[in-house]
Design brief:
The chain is an all-alpha fold. It has a domain at 8-33 and 43-64. It has two helices and no strands. It has helices at 8-32, 46-64. The longest helix is centred in the N-terminal third of the chain and has 25 residues, at 8-32.
Length: 71
């Protein structure tokens, strides 16, 4: 009987995916309800772009290293 191993990269992908959803959600919220004090580069909406990048990378890692069942 062999034990199934789950790659650490699968969990890293899940973490990146979750962080990406949270960061991009915050960026979308700040897009519609801007903070009282704006930052110098606030018009670039970096949270939306950074969150989207994390979602893409996290989804790739989660899909690529998903533990497959070999029964």
């Amino acid at each position: 009987m062999t034990e199934a191993r789950i790659s650490i990269w699968f969990f890293i992908g899940l973490i990146l995916l979750i962080y990406g959803v949270l960061i991009s959600g915050m960026g979308v919220y700040h897009y519609f309800y801007p903070p009282a004090r704006d930052t110098v580069l606030g018009h670039l909406h970096a949270a939306i772009w950074w969150g989207a990048l994390l979602v893409v990378v996290g989804a790739f890692y989660s899909y690529r290293f998903f533990p497959h069942r070999t029964d």
